[in-house]
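HUMAN: Spend a minute on the protein record below and explain its fold to me.
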Amino acid sequence: MKLTFWGATQQVTGSMFLLESDDYRILIDCGSDFDLDEIGKKTRYEQQKSVFPFEPSLINTVLLTHAHIDHSGNIPNLYKEGFEGRVVCTEPTMALTSLLLKDAANLHQKRLNSRINSKKRSGKKKREVPMDYYVEKHVIEALDNFVPVAFGQRYRIADNVTVTYYAAGHLLGAAHIVLEVYENGEKKRLCFSGDIGRKNYPLLIDPQEVPQVDYLICESTYGNRLHEDQRGPVETLADVIKRTCIDIPGRLIIPSFSVGRTQALLYTLNQLYLDRSFPFIKVFSDSPLAHSSTKVYQKHARMLNKEAREFKEDNDMLFDFENLIYLESSDASRAVSNYNEPCIIISSSGMVQGGRVEAHVEANIGNPYATILMIGYASEGTLGWRLLNGQDTISIRGKQHPVLANVEKIDVFSGHGDQNDLINFVKMQDPEKLKGIFLVHGEQQSMAEFQSKIQEIGYHSVETPLRGTTYEL
């Protein structure tokens, strides 16, 4: 049996791992690589003569841990290049992946239009379509081959391979995947962690324990960090709103990912206004994708944690409350700038890189009565990262702006488990029985520090694979 690491190797994005047993080939995740710029993508794809470093038509099955684009974003390209198998995932993952891939297709179209317009302005006539470009038609064709499975049930996907999905927290439907592979009369177990959630997260059930395995492929996003906020989401958010919208008549801009993070925010705001009788400050949710994702969460409420299910039973709606306004159109989004009362604006993207939130940040960056609240990870170079680094002036859409707005950060809504959560996940495995750990989905420093931590507690065979490295298991 061979395992090759084709993505999320010493970086966070692009999860993609190829497991080969006899003539059966399984791809675990098929994510977009956001660490590569356009030139880097073009160079890699031309060298490979494909979006992929392997022949897609030879893949038998894809196992998807969860819906986020850095895990699912290249699935339509896999079918475009000849894959004919099925994608196995949980039912909520299938629903959320549908939304995210269709949104990605729209972004692909905008990206292509931008290229075409750029070439027209430069006088060049050749229309160059990026190799990883896909449209909604390709997404729909891919989705026709998705097969939903339940948590905790063993499924046979080949004569010698079974798979079981365990809830990972992190996102609705997210899973740890345990594979049992039978070779030469011997059974080998592998666990792919996906993204590991945290306990007591709004809406989501806690990550489930996984059984003993022989090999553990473990994410390490927060391998060198601990969550800073010690209070719960309701208390933390209440404090921010009081200081930014009540004590002073200000506005609070919250960049938030549309899938997962926004739902946790809206649910917490609903709890806050019901339990604490806060002034009814207007809340604008400015992301059509978030609105669609919220409906998926509402539909699959039976799969949420006990607190959320009881809240829904008592109050009927998890996310809708009296002072919440969903903004669908671009015109409605722009019109919020004319609203002069204290308000909260939740908009994507969470890293303030593209999306409607850029316009909200640009409109309020010079307002000393505005606060920009970062609630999650922002990768280096993004506008969110630059805001967090305390720059006096900042460039938005090519124009320099003085930073007069307040910039704050909380991590209580981060969907990733921190270093302690990751260590606890690893400690489910007996170090005497575990043959190897492979660390993925983390920046190099985070990965190196986490490797050192788990080696200190007795796990000695710990690898940090490079892209393209193959291991015989």
Remarks:
- Residues 233-409 form a domain with the Rossmann fold fold (CATH 3.40.50.10890).
- The longest helix spans residues 91-122.
- The mean pLDDT is 93.
